[in-house]
Amino acid sequence: MTSLRSRSYLESMAGLSAVVTGGSRGLGLLLAEHLLMRGCAVTIAARNEEELGRARKFLTHARSGARVHCVPCDVTDRASVTSLMAEAAEAHDGVDVVIANAGVIQVAPLESLDADAFRSTLDTIYLGALHTSLEALPWLRRSPNGGRLALIGSVGGLLAVPHLLPYSCAKAAVAALAEGLHAELRGQGVSVTAVHPGLMRTGSHLAAEFGGDQAAEFAWFSALAGAPLVSMDARRAADRIVTAVERRRTRIVLTPMAKAAALAHGVAPALTTRLSALMAGLLPSAPDRAEGGGGLHEGRDITPGPDGARHTMAWRLRDWCGALNDRAARRLNQRPHRAQGGG
Prior knowledge:
Blueprint: H1 4-7, E1 17-21, H2 26-37, E2 41-46, H3 49-61, E3 68-72, H4 78-92, E4 97-100, E5 106-107, H5 115-141, E6 147-152, H6 165-184, E7 190-196, E8 200-201, E9 209-210, H7 214-226, E10 232-233, H8 234-246, E11 251-253, H9 256-267, H10 269-282, E12 297-298, H11 313-321, H12 323-331
Parallel strand pairs: 1-2, 1-4, 2-3, 4-6, 5-9, 6-7, 7-11, 8-10
Antiparallel strand pairs: 9-12
């Protein structure tokens, strides 16, 4: 019998049934688009039905005859994921490709977070990937050509990033899950691809939640996420991810900076940990506890405020570097920043 590895460059995904969780906006929306471009029938899942409706219009607008099915799903609820897979299989005659992409981002110093913030992030990112994997496997094993499973991790799961600690912890668990599944499923006809992107211009800064000095945290995060030399065009990233899934690659790390950071941490973890501590010292400090942390707020709800914060270096960088990311947000079904008046 021909192995999955030897078949990998010979197979086409045309006619296969694919499922993308977190598929209504951002990277997930582009992953669905590239699967459609390769001839797949695609089921996208997300919690927000209104977003799903807009996503379906986006995906079918430019592709006549595109087969897109939408399923409201909360990946933290395993029963909801069970229903998702069954509905996708019924709509498109089975399930052959699954990409676990659903996630959340919380940006804040440790002093502004509590255990619930870690728990909610783990529930969505790690348990969401776990539920998706476990519920997908029975269907993927039945795929005539061998199923494909991809888990979207992050370079933040390969080394901890300051002020992104809940996210890094959850993505580290996803990385271990992907490696473990690859080992456990060897010989069962299902390939597993671990995907570890660096920063991408997906407009995710609007959906991310910020704590501590929220305006400053939003400013530095959205500036880096939009900087051309630091972040990656999301459409290009989606193409590379779907190609890796198509070719049954075991692991892919995206962006040169992410590759360099992952390599450096693997070779000299103590040094990179010290460098992370230095970087943490440059990030906004938490407000005085007496002033109250203010909880977590979505990026789209954050403005510089009346105290002249827009004139700080962080906001100037955000204004200079964030244009590409703001454009991506409008294009990729991210609701607009309220301070910008829609669009």
